[in-house]
């Protein structure tokens, strides 16, 4: 379940049972009146922008993770019980 936020209006626009990428693409396409879901990947792929914690398509944005879950992961990393693979790959897995 992914909540999608409209960055232009500052409002949540809905919840989709898709991946974050699929949800923002669907929100964007449907805001344009396009409900041909089978065409979305081909038509809107070039509009997808990936960030560190979010994905956007046009003015529509969604988080790539569940914030409460990420908080728990961060606590495990700080306690030395988990490794942040993204920092580990860069060689900077230090407690903050």
What does this structure look like?
Helix content is 36%, strand content 23%. The chain is an alpha+beta fold. The protein has two domains: 62 residues, no CATH class; 31 residues, no CATH class. A five-stranded antiparallel beta sheet has the order 2-1-5-4-3, covered by helices on one side.
Structural class, by secondary structure, is alpha+beta
Strand order of the largest sheet: 2-1-5-4-3
Number of strands: 5
Q: Pick out the low-confidence regions.
A: 88-96
Order of helices and strands: EEHHEEEHH
Q: Give the integer mean of the pLDDT values.
A: 82
Euclidean distance between termini CA atoms: 31 Å
Could you provide a short overview of the structure?
This protein is of the alpha+beta class and 96 residues long. Helix content is 36%, strand content 23%.
SSE arrangement:
Elements: E1 2-6, E2 11-16, H1 20-31, H2 40-44, E3 48-50, E4 54-57, E5 60-63, H3 67-78, H4 85-90
Antiparallel strand pairs: 1-2, 1-5, 3-4, 4-5
Quickly list its features.
single chain; 96 residues; alpha+beta; 2 domains; 5-stranded antiparallel beta sheet; 4 helices; 36% helix; 23% strand; elongated; disordered C terminus
